[in-house]
Amino acid sequence: MSIVIRDVREHELDSVLALNNAAGPAILPLDAARLRRFHADAEYFRIAERDGTLAGFLVGFGSRARHDSVNFRWFAERYPDFFYIDRIVVASRRRGGGVGRAFYADVQSYAELRYPQLACEVFLDDGNDPALLFHGSFGFREVGQHVMPGVDGGPGHRAAMLMKELCSYPWVRDTYRGHLPEVPWIVAPRTAAAPVQRATGT
């Protein structure tokens, strides 16, 4: 069956929360309040459906977002303009079935019209070669490492900080000067959280 990627709906947030918190140590846990902040503020918050059931979700923020993630801030302190993948979660029974690749194709098609770079991190505490290989196959490269603060004095997560140049962005920026055509496939996926128009040439 095909994979359908679409905007999350508010009534699905409980299912998204359960999926996130069952994902294991490679994904930071969430509580309901933080997930609702994501729903209110994230520029990109989409789910994948396969066979009519929730197969995964991806949350992303533009570099001008008011986002309190320490990994987001790491990028913001070093790069002026990027789109940040805060988290991608794929249901365990769907891993290896193309959901992650479908998400990355979708989020890149969104980001490359609006941002010059795509950013994310991969936790390194327990190895994680499959995740590094996955991102490398999409053209991400490591630009540094960051150790997140631990909880209650415990050790923090060490993460590889990854970025990908979005080669289409300069042409889009120079051609459309921040005013993209209003056609369905270009419209921001979450109108309420769509980014403000930004100055061109930066």
Automatic annotation (TrEMBL):
It holds the Pfam family Acetyltransf_1. PROSITE patterns: GNAT. Residues 3-168 form the N-acetyltransferase domain. One of its GO terms (molecular function) is acyltransferase activity, transferring groups other than amino-acyl groups. It comes from the Bacteria. InterPro entries: Acyl_CoA_acyltransferase (IPR016181), GNAT_dom (IPR000182), UCP028520 (IPR016890). Keywords: Transferase. SUPFAM superfamilies: Acyl-CoA N-acyltransferases (Nat). This is GNAT family N-acetyltransferase. It comes from Cognatiluteimonas weifangensis.
